[in-house]
Amino acid sequence: MKGKLVFVALIVAASAILTSCTPSSGSGGESASGEATAMNGFQTVAAAEGCFIAAGTGGKIARLDYDNSQMSFGSDVAADLYAVTYYNGMYLAVGERGAITASDADAVEFASRDSGVKADLYAVAGFAGRFFAAGAGGTLLSSDDCVRWEKMDIGLENDIVTMAANHSYLFALTREGHIISSIDGANFSVQDYNTEFEGYNEHKYWFENITSLGETFFITGSIQGYEDVPMVMMSPTGEVWMPRAISEIDDRPSSEFLPLHLGQVGLGGGQLVAPVNGGRLISITDCSSCNVMHRIGSNEIYSLAYTADWVALAGQDFWFEVIETERLEIEEESE
């Protein structure tokens, strides 16, 4: 009960943006399929050793370098790829109809792997020495070598749309609000967040992305009934999820920027950063009224990855840009 009371006290700030909004029409379960909508381009990007790795429609996989050059990898997979990761010296990408393709870091070609399923795979992560892939119909797969894959039964039929891990926890989400978690990669628990906190929270949420930033996990999504309004929550353990309010952007009410659809968060310029619809990137600060919007370009940004000094953005029509994090630093106003 204590954890729920803590959350209720914090959720008030997250709802501030709703004061000038009205519910969107057609908002309901019918829109919550979680099915990937693969617009042409890079769907996903991840940090690797000394570079970034991006994957997308048509099975395209490329290395993105800090100087904004790219090198395409050979691959025998033509399926759309929705998620990519680099873990234990291996590149791993997953996608439609159970597609899995992998390569070690020294290779220049990817080779397909037999996942044993035909379900679309939307998420991938490395944790506890193993690789995990997840997707449609509650599909969850694990492997210790990227070759032999085992299907795990977690009792869910909802699509698993995103996954992230650090050294302590693995989390995966459904769009409808299920949180799947593990501390060892062998045993999993499932929490129906919206049901468990019904009556404590003012709103229910759609979950879209989860990211691990060091010791803390961040969920981005939207508010059910207000789908153009973003939601950001954070937790180090998954026991209590605390919202990050976005009340103002560029010294203006956040409602003036709607619709706001946030991608997964990363770090840049000492702040949280996240892709936003319209080819933009938002810096989310500790001050709810000090957030800053960056115009990056005209292409939609589908994915973000980061290192200590670089942020990679990738998206529509295989556009990408690797920028130095200092470019995203926010200048403090002098009094």
For this structure, what is the CATH homologous superfamily of the domain at 2-11 and 38-245? Kelch-type beta propeller
CATH topology of the domain at 2-11 and 38-245: Neuraminidase
| Shape verdict | globular
Helix content: under 10%
Short account of what is shown:
The protein has 335 residues and is mostly beta strands. It has helices at residues 2-14, 193-196, and strands at 42-48, 51-56, 61-64, 70-72, 74-75, 81-87, 90-95, 100-104, 109-113, 121-127, 130-135, 140-143, 150-151, 160-165, 170-174, 178-182, 189-192, 205-213, 216-223, 226-235, 242-243, 248-249, 252-253, 266-268, 271-276, 280-284, 292-295, 301-306, 310-315, 320-324.
Question: Could you walk me through the main structural features you see in this protein, from its secondary elements to its overall organization?
Answer:
This protein has a domain at 2-11 and 38-245: Kelch-type beta propeller (Neuraminidase), CATH 2.120.10. It contains two helices and 30 strands. Helix content is 5%, strand content 45%. The chain has helices at 2-14, 193-196, and strands at 42-48, 51-56, 61-64, 70-72, 74-75, 81-87, 90-95, 100-104, 109-113, 121-127, 130-135, 140-143, 150-151, 160-165, 170-174, 178-182, 189-192, 205-213, 216-223, 226-235, 242-243, 248-249, 252-253, 266-268, 271-276, 280-284, 292-295, 301-306, 310-315, 320-324. The chain starts with a helix and ends in an 11-residue tail after the last strand. The strands form eight sheets. Strands 5-9-8-7-6 form a five-stranded mixed sheet, with no helix packed on it. It has a four-stranded antiparallel sheet with strand order 1-2-3-4, with no helix packed on it. Strands 10-11-12-13 form a four-stranded antiparallel sheet, with no helix packed on it. It has 335 residues and is mainly beta.
